[in-house]
Amino acid sequence: MTSVREDDHREAQAVGAPVAPTAEDPVAEAGSELIGGPLGRRASLAGGHSWWNPLRVIVSVAIGMFALGMVQKVPCYKSGWFFGANTQYAKACYSDIPHLYYGRGFSTSLHPYFDRIPDSVSGGMSYLEYPVLTGLFMQVASWFTPHSGSIQNQEQNYWLVNAGLLLVCTAVIAVAVARTNRRRPWDALLVALSPAFALTSTINWDLFAVALTALGMMLWSRSRPLAAGILIGLATAAKLYPVLLLGPLLLLCLRAGRLRAWRSALFGAAAAWLVVNLPVMLLAWPGWIKFYSFSQERGVDYGSIWLIISQRTGTTLAGANSYATAVMLLLCAGIAALALYAPRRPRFAQLAFLVIAAFILTNKVYSPQYVLWLIPLAALARPKWRDFLIWQAAEVMYFLGIWMYLALTTGGNDKGLPLDGYHMAIGVHLLGTAYLCAVVVRDALFPDRDPVRWDGSDDPSGGVLDGAEDVFVLGRGHGSHAAPARYGDATRAQWGTGPAAGEEREPA
Question: Where is the sequence biased in composition, kind Basic and acidic residues (predicted)?
Fold first, then answer.
């Protein structure tokens, strides 16, 4: 027997209304008590005539959480970035941004990629070790930074300018995630309220690439593959990871017989990437290649499973590149098998999350801000608060663990986290990410467990893939897009599947 509220929720789903998280998620329902309780029977899920529609609420919350993240950096803003390296670790408020303002020549108006950085400034990094579009972002921020006063004041101002630009990226991400699945805009609150998002958003410039990627996924959901590809290409020109999304798209388009859309996305991505990169490649090759050579040559570093192995065995693990590549390829093969063997075609967001998570789990380094890559994907792939918060707790523990470990190793005293504790923090991060991956895989294998499909949807963020019949399936996959049997008669009638009205059937 269902409650009146559950019946109202399913009726709203059947007529195409937005999904209320408090009606289907016990954690969201319990948390809503802090702001007055769940939505009532007559509340408008879309915001009705109120100015506070879902999009405005989500963006406002995201901006508020970003501001709290800035407040968390205040101890370093006042002195920690300048007077003693240990303070920025002990207070867990470290950021690359002020350090690289001087360390990469922006304080002296050097041009990234074109001007060699003096060793006395960079500590041996001859050119900027970031992709071209991120370098442009850094350069633009430097143009808006007053180059007067003490270097400390300049670095503070540079961080503030970058924080303002990254705040714009945060709003873009919130809007893009909310509009990717228009039936579930409230899922973007997972992004807006993410504690790891607030803590890591101003450590580095990753939010720029995340915003471009989120826009690309939103455009794909609107069946605009060429535009989506252009955004993915631009995102790849800012950070390498977004190019991996083309792999899941290829598999899903192959299964659905939509390869023309994938070719459009591939062309758009390649063209956009070349437009941004080719001029720098031709005119400043040593500076352009630095990001790629540095990524290849760097050894195992903080946050990776390879660091645990290296430190536990006392070896340099010189073959880490080969090991990481081999494991990544194995995981990608598993994701490909899931895409082509699953009884129902997985959703794009699910495979996108899995492939980026695989890259993070196998990489030689895991910087705390890399969690930003996954947060929007997690909100779309598994919009359940319990699982999301379990993962977020693991990421917050790692965030604290890395800084406490560095506080111990750089402070010259006994205050901080010892090596065994730091290895445990890495393990918590790895297990938390693996847990969320396992839940997403389970949803793909058993679609009736997928909350996005509880209303009979196929792949709302899949664009041309949404509702498409399969043409290429391996094994026993059957490619059925019938609504699962647990939903109401109105939903089944919408799909033209399931038992007749009045019949009862237990979910598979």
Answer: 1-12
Give the orientation angle of helix 54-72 with respect to helix 151-180, to 10 degrees.
150
- Digit-coded pLDDT (tens) for 432-444: 999 999 999 999 9
Q: In whole angstroms, what separates CA 433 from the centre of its chain?
A: 12
Q: Where are the alpha helices (DSSP H) in 144-221?
A: 151-180, 189-192, 195-200, 206-221
- The beta strand positions in 21-161, using DSSP E, are none
Enumerate residues 6+ apart whose C-beta is below 8 A from 161.
141, 144, 145
List the one residue out of 346, 304, 323, 367 whose CA is nearest residue 437.
346
pLDDT score recorded for residue 86: 84
**Band (50; pLDDT cuts 50, 70, 90):** low
Q: In angstroms, rounded to a whole number, what is the distance separating the alpha carbons of residues 401 and 423?
A: 9
Please report, in angstroms and rounded to a whole number, the separation of the first and last CA atoms in the chain: 18
Q: How far apart are CA 339 and CA 328, in angstroms?
A: 16
Residue 120 has which token pair? 């006395």
Residues in the chain: 508
**Chain segment 108-154, per-residue pLDDT in tens:** 999 999 999 998 888 889 999 999 999 999 999 999 999 999 999 99
Q: Please name the residue that has the structure tokens 């143009």.
A: 143
Other CB atoms closer than 10 Å to residue 45's CB: what's the count?
Answer: 21
List the chain domain ranges.
Answer: 1-42, 53-473, 478-508
Contact 220, 265 (CB under 8 A): yes
What is the CA angle 230-233-236, rounded to 5? 155
Retrieve residue 321's tokens. 């590149």
Helices within 370-501 (DSSP H only): 371-381, 385-411, 419-445, 489-495
**Cα angle 8, 59, 240; round to 5:** 110
Where does the pLDDT of residue 49 fall: very low under 50, low under 70, confident under 90, or very high at 90 and above? low
Q: Which of 417, 294, 273, 430 is nearest to 362 (CA)?
A: 430
Percentage, residues of the chain above pLDDT 70: 83
264 in Cβ contact with 227 (< 8 Å):
no
The DSSP code for 414 is S
CB-CB contact of 357 with 374 (8 Å): yes
Which residues 6+ apart lie within 8 Å of 148 measured at CB?
Answer: 154
State residue 338's pLDDT score: 97
